[in-house]
């Protein structure tokens, strides 16, 4: 690699980051939300396009700019469709899955989530849980993020109404 290549990489980073920031400002907060599986896929794809656009010095900078624009546009098209038609949302996204409920491990759900007990213990420690009895619900969300609801306050039923048990 030459100094010219290094300078080219520096310039590409500046331009592509500016493009991503501009698009995220235009298209709003949902751009990087990862609220759904589709949002997560778009975020991963943006990272891949950015990395390839920075390092593919033999390619035009217009290719990653067009790809970034297309990803943001697809997200803009898909998001309102997901909110309008439940069948479309169900087709795109996994439903959240409870793996612990009222201090009891739901073994079948843990298996369905492809999690081991060691994975579960690590996630509970990460959530500052001192014991399984403290856990009212532990949920694997649509994006794979692990949520632990614990404490003494009763969980509002609405929080778990769309969650598989």
UniProtKB/TrEMBL annotation:
<feature type="transmembrane region" description="Helical">
    <location>
        <begin position="61"/>
        <end position="81"/>
    </location>
</feature>
<protein>
    <recommendedName>
        <fullName>YetF C-terminal domain-containing protein</fullName>
    </recommendedName>
</protein>
<feature type="domain" description="YetF C-terminal">
    <location>
        <begin position="84"/>
        <end position="153"/>
    </location>
</feature>
<dbReference type="InterPro" id="IPR007353">
    <property type="entry name" value="DUF421"/>
</dbReference>
<feature type="transmembrane region" description="Helical">
    <location>
        <begin position="6"/>
        <end position="23"/>
    </location>
</feature>
<comment type="similarity">
    <text>Belongs to the UPF0702 family.</text>
</comment>
<dbReference type="InterPro" id="IPR023090">
    <property type="entry name" value="UPF0702_alpha/beta_dom_sf"/>
</dbReference>
<keyword id="KW-0812">Transmembrane</keyword>
<feature type="transmembrane region" description="Helical">
    <location>
        <begin position="35"/>
        <end position="55"/>
    </location>
</feature>
<keyword id="KW-0472">Membrane</keyword>
<dbReference type="Pfam" id="PF04239">
    <property type="entry name" value="DUF421"/>
</dbReference>
<keyword id="KW-1003">Cell membrane</keyword>
<dbReference type="GO" id="GO:0005886">
    <property type="term" value="C:plasma membrane"/>
</dbReference>
<keyword id="KW-1133">Transmembrane helix</keyword>
């Amino acid at each position: 690699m030459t100094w010219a290549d290094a300078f080219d990489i520096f310039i590409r980073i500046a331009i592509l980051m500016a493009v991503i920031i501009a698009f995220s400002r235009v298209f709003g907060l949902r751009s990087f939300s990862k609220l759904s599986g589709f949002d997560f896929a778009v975020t991963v794809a943006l990272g891949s396009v950015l990395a390839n656009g920075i390092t593919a010095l033999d390619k035009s900078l217009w290719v990653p700019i067009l790809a970034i624009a297309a990803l943001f546009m697809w997200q803009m098209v898909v998001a309102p469709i997901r909110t309008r038609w439940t069948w479309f949302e169900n087709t795109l996204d996994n439903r959240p899955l409870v793996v612990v409920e009222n201090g009891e491990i739901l073994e079948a759900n843990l298996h369905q989530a492809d999690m081991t007990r060691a994975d579960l213990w690590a996630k509970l420690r990460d959530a500052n849980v001192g014991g399984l009895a403290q856990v009212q619900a532990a949920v694997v969300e649509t994006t794979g993020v692990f949520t632990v609801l614990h404490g003494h306050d009763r969980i509002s039923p609405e929080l778990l109404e769309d969650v598989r048990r």
